[in-house]
Design goal:
heterodimer, A: 427 residues, alpha+beta, five-stranded antiparallel beta sheet, elongated, B: 451 residues, alpha/beta, eight-stranded mixed beta sheet, five-stranded parallel beta sheet, 13 helices, globular
Chain lengths: 427, 451
């Protein structure tokens, strides 16, 4: 019995991914949880784990090809299970828990008809008529099989069949046009010259998504930014005092952990900043959970993993979580699950450089807090000139949601927590 | 007065186009020099099928009655009454042609009786009237190739066959066409001694070898003699006193001329490019070498099937109206009213090999089908030829008593570019002969259940 494993719906409304690297070969034995393939989706680069024990019988798609959710990725010859048992098993298990097996938390296996009797005609598989029913293109079965095989996005093909149905010939024509069109076709300058002076690189999924999200945010939110500085020598002292203690417990105590905690607690007092505006239904959605996204710089681009219920976590727990995400960012294994459900975002660029910024809101959230470079500065304390440790803060809010006063009061609250870290314990 | 479209010929290519043109609001006239409905309705498809049904029934009563549990039938006591069978056929023809006439009228088509002469690309003359049209469609059909003959009543064209007449005992049918075999088998069923003279070295030039071989085997079993490489163009010196010399001496009282048909070219002041075989040459939209003059049906030599002529004609009407479509003759079924019937669609196995496909043949025999067994029909099979890469259905062949009806299912598969997976997933009711499709589909995907 063979099991056709389809690219699972890994959430966040993603409907396609690009094959980055195959981790298995045809004929290779795999165990549940073994990485099959590295896929780049709109938001992450992630490994897809094997849902079954068995031997890889067929792999669908080459590196660089786009695979839609619900389309076949691999065909696994299952061991030990034959005939009806395999069908029964496949039907039974619709959602496969993959704890600890890979980075993707829960894989919902698309479709429940994923088992096909062993067949030498595997390549066309049975999913040609089995695409996700939402936004299904009108196309013939052969056109679908061919589009998948040739890496053509069938939704982009104009059908010439009855009622605009995409036919076999349309896929062939589309693939041919695509293949022959130079990437800089619209330019009048000579191609040779272009190639010397510029480098044309196709956008990655992540870059496309960042671009889309940034534009969405700038188009929809009314950005307003407020800048301030907070003197944090007390906080600095606390951090120094507990640094070794944290290190002994296997974590690193950073300023960021305090900022996250302070922000989460402040959000509890200013609900507008932890909300989103639902214009369509003319209503506000105030969230009673405080999930703080932290913008993390990676080679591929910015990702924003989320620290859930930060208001309830201790500074230590938060530090552990930050360390975990840094490591994941380094190895490129941040999953979609890690990035889900943020309610507010903190971007900390100070360790790289820059004091103030105008951060772009992670739409539809209401605000984003920017943390600049901490520096020693002359400050006035008790009417005395002193050397202070100063943390610059930039807060962008969606002015549709938060008014100036509320925004300033929220910022004051955050700064007050940071200036007097003991107050964090008093809430 | 300026017509949008003038159609010459009211056979299935012409009259269907006229109705479609009327539906789309084109001002249309159709010119017919003989009878509405053309060869198909009046002297071809319909009468031959009516006679074939009579012949099959006659044969069945004689040979199957006892086996099916009907006592009292004396095979020697029953006889075939050709003239009565013809009367039944005439009734059907009358009903159908009246229907066509009504439909033409209903759709506002002007029917002009007379012979058309094409004057220019935009005008014709009929009954000394000159008619102007933006488009002209030639649908004049085809005729049997000529056999020179001085002996009265010896050579019969299919067009003249289905009338009240004496049917002699020894019949020769000439031709490589499905019609030739069909007529030979019909005569054989009613107890005549039949020989088929094939001009070349094979039957059915457009059919898959599989079908040809199956039908050849059936003819042999039924003792219908087939002699190859015997083109017949003249009876002089070849036929004498009931004997035809065709490599050997054949008893022959009547020759039915069913060889591959020739174009009936309209009289015309303008010249069209012709194919090497004398048909009007057309492009992919059935346009002749003269813009706005189209040729559809047998006259263009692309096919001799009524339904393909109709499809070509409707394509032209759509083309004139600016409705863009593709015409793919390979997606149209070829039906052969042999016994059992044979039908095919798509590519033949040879064409598939020539095109370089990696393909699979999935076959399911009628002898393993319950319904076919109850009907007493053991002969035949369905074959699905699919490409291994996508499972695309490339071609289908059927031999079965109702193959010409069953092929429509395959036609739908072809039209919708279905794969063998779709066939396998299409549940077919039981018991039906059509289950063979599902079984062959299973076979294509993995393996058949009942095989």
């Amino acid at each position: 019995m063979r099991y056709i494993f389809k690219f699972p719906d890994i959430g966040e409304g993603l409907d396609e991914g690009i094959i980055v690297e195959w981790k298995v070969k045809k004929g290779q034995e795999v165990k549940v949880g073994d990485s099959l393939v590295t896929m780049e989706t709109d938001k992450v680069v992630t490994d897809i784990p094997a849902p079954r024990n068995g031997v890889i019988a067929e792999m669908f798609g080459k590196v660089g090809e786009t695979i839609h959710v619900g389309e076949a990725l691999v065909e696994i010859e299952m061991e030990g299970i034959a005939g009806e048992a395999a069908v029964a098993e496949a039907n039974k298990i619709e959602a496969v828990e993959e704890e600890g097996a890979g980075v993707v938390g829960t894989l919902e296996v698309a479709g429940n008809s994923a088992v096909l009797s062993a067949s030498t005609e595997g390549t066309a598989s049975n999913n040609s008529t089995d695409l996700p029913s939402d936004r299904k293109a009108l196309a013939t079965p052969v056109a679908r099989a061919m589009a998948k095989d040739m890496g053509v996005d069938i939704h982009k093909v104009k059908g010439t069949g009855p009622g605009g149905r995409v036919m076999k010939d349309d896929i062939i024509a589309f693939a041919q046009n695509k293949g022959s069109k130079p990437t800089t076709s619209s330019r009048s300058t000579s191609l040779a010259m272009d190639e010397i002076l510029t480098e044309v690189v196709p956008l990655t999924q992540i870059r496309k998504t960042i671009a889309k999200n940034m534009i969405t945010s700038k188009h929809n939110a009314a950005h307003m930014t407020i800048f301030d500085e907070v003197e944090i020598s007390k906080l600095d002292q606390v951090r120094k005092n507990y640094k070794d203690n944290f290190a002994a417990r296997g974590s690193k105590l950073t300023y960021l952990a305090f900022v996250i905690k302070a922000t989460a607690l402040a959000l509890k007092k200013f609900k507008a900043l932890n909300s989103e505006m639902d214009m369509e239904n003319s209503q506000m959605i105030y969230k009673k959970y405080y999930n703080i996204g932290i913008a993390v710089d990676t080679e591929k681009g910015l990702v924003v993993p989320v620290i859930r219920n930060a208001d309830k976590l201790s500074i230590f727990d938060i530090s552990v979580k930050i360390a975990e995400y840094s490591e994941k960012a380094r190895t490129g294994t941040i999953s979609l699950e890690d990035m889900r459900d943020g309610t507010f975002t903190i971007t900390s660029y100070g360790n790289i450089g820059g004091k103030f910024a105008v951060p772009v809101i992670n739409y539809p959230q209401a605000g984003i807090l920017g943390i600049g470079r901490i520096s020693k500065q002359p400050v006035v304390m008790n009417d005395q000139l002193a050397v202070g440790t100063v943390l610059p803060i930039s807060l962008s809010v969606d002015h549709r949601i938060a008014d100036g006063g509320e925004t300033a009061r929220f910022l004051n609250q955050v700064m007050s927590y940071l200036a007097d870290p003991v107050s964090l314990l008093m809430e | 007065m300026m017509y949008d479209l003038i159609i010459i010929g009211s056979g299935p290519a012409g009259y269907v186009s006229a109705i479609r043109a009327g539906q789309l609001g084109l001002k249309t006239a159709i010119v017919e020099k003989n009878v509405i409905g053309g060869m198909c309705l009046n002297w071809g498809c319909i009468p031959s099928k009516a006679i074939m049904e009579s012949a099959k029934l006659f044969d069945r009563i004689g040979s199957d009655s006892a086996r099916f549990g009907i006592d009292g039938i004396d095979k020697k006591a029953i006889s075939f009454n050709w003239n009565k069978a013809i009367k039944r056929s005439d009734g059907i023809v009358k009903k159908l042609t009246t229907g066509v006439g009504f439909l033409l009228k209903k759709n506002g088509i002007e029917v002009i009786e007379g012979e058309a002469q094409i004057l220019t690309a935009n005008s014709i003359s009929v009954n000394n009237r000159t008619l102007e049209a933006r488009n002209i469609m030639i649908a004049t059909g085809s005729k049997s190739p000529e056999i020179q003959n001085e002996f009265e009543g010896l050579v019969i064209e299919p067009k003249n066959l289905f009338v009240e007449r004496e049917i002699p005992d020894n019949i020769v049918v000439t031709g490589e066409t499905p019609v030739a075999v069909e007529l030979a088998q019909a005569f054989n069923l009613i107890g005549k001694k039949v020989t088929v003279l094939v001009p070349g070295d094979r039957l059915f030039p457009f059919a898959d070898d599989y079908l040809v071989n199956q039908i050849m085997a059936k003819l042999k079993k039924d003792r219908v003699k087939v002699i190859f490489n015997q083109p017949l163009t003249n009876t002089q010196g070849v036929w004498e006193n009931g004997i035809l010399k065709a490599g050997e001496d054949i008893a022959c009282d009547m020759i039915v001329n069913a060889a591959r048909r020739k174009a009936i070219l309209p009289t015309s002041e303008i010249k069209f490019d012709l194919t090497a075989d004398g048909y009007i040459s057309v492009d992919e939209n059935m346009q002749t070498s003269i813009p706005n003059v189209f040729a559809v049906g047998d006259v263009n030599g692309l096919s001799y099937y009524a339904h393909i002529g109709s499809a070509e004609g409707m394509h032209v009407v759509n083309f004139i109206k600016g409705i863009k479509q593709k015409l793919n003759l390979k997606k149209y079924p070829m039906n052969m009213y042999t016994v059992p019937e044979a039908a095919q669609i798509g590519l033949t196995e040879k064409e598939i090999i020539a095109a370089g496909y990696d393909y699979k043949v999935s076959e399911f025999p009628m002898s393993a089908n319950g319904k076919a067994l109850t009907e007493g029909n053991l002969d035949g099979a369905v074959r699905i030829l699919s490409d291994k890469k996508y499972g695309e259905v490339l071609g289908v062949q059927i031999i079965a008593p109702n193959a010409t009806d069953m092929i429509s299912e395959a036609a739908a598969y072809m039209e919708m570019e279905a794969t063998v997976y779709d066939i396998a997933q299409t549940v077919h009711a039981h018991p039906t002969v059509s289950e063979v499709f599902m079984e062959a589909g299973f076979e294509a995907v993995d393996r058949a259940i009942h095989k």
